[in-house]
What does this fold into?
Amino acid sequence: MKLHLHLLSDSTGETLENIAKAALAQYDDVDTVRHFWPMVRTEAHLERILQEIAQNPGLVIFTLVNPATRRILESRCRELGLPSVAPLDPVNDALSALLGQTAKARPGRQHALDAAYFARVDAIQFTIAHDDGVGAENWEAADIVLAGVSRSSKTPTSIYLANRGFKTANIPIVVESPPPRSLFALEHPLVVGLTTSADRLIAVRRNRLLSLNQAPDTSYVDEEAVTRELAYARRMFADNGWPVIDVTRRSIEETAAAIIALCQERREGEAQETR
It folds into this structure.
């Protein structure tokens, strides 16, 4: 089945794209043609888009805060017999009822350059500079330190966490080269151990070697060596009382969500202790 999906936003459209992506992930075998229309803020611009929609009818999803622009779009979609959806409306209606306020009709207000934005940029810069064991002298300034054997998703998870505003460092656990002693004396960061199954780790490592045109017959993918490596890492995690997350069947997003939950639990515990 072929679906024309029209996404109209009066801002960057990032929120709309994420909503559409999450919804489409629930359906199989759908040939989707996305028509992306960001920064729709004038009626003239909307009229040009409506001509395209008429030529390629499909589902229209929009985030438009200007009442006049919205009315035109909804009216024309009814004339064309096309469904139109404003996915943020139910959330805004619920918030307005609970808060007793009317939503501010400001396009892209969530993208304002506020303190949270700059904190996220700072977190990304810190994380990139402290990848793969680099910058151990600054680990105390991190929010999270991820430890795990090679190819246990440390770097992509770190980058994802950084985009959520968490300064994240990561360090590989190598049997032949123990981590610096400073790792075991950290007080501010939450240290989390990442582990996985030997089978999955070997498969990931083999693919990595093949992508680099290297021979896939080394101790790096030897089952006995990998099993010993994982056991060494797990023992280190247990000895230091670090929380452990098995990433075998988790996506990066799921792993990051579990780590964020651990951070929140820790903060709540610290808050209770100070009361």
Q: What stands out?
A: The longest helix spans residues 252-274. The longest strand covers residues 2-9. Residues 115-274 form a domain with the Rossmann fold fold (CATH 3.40.50).
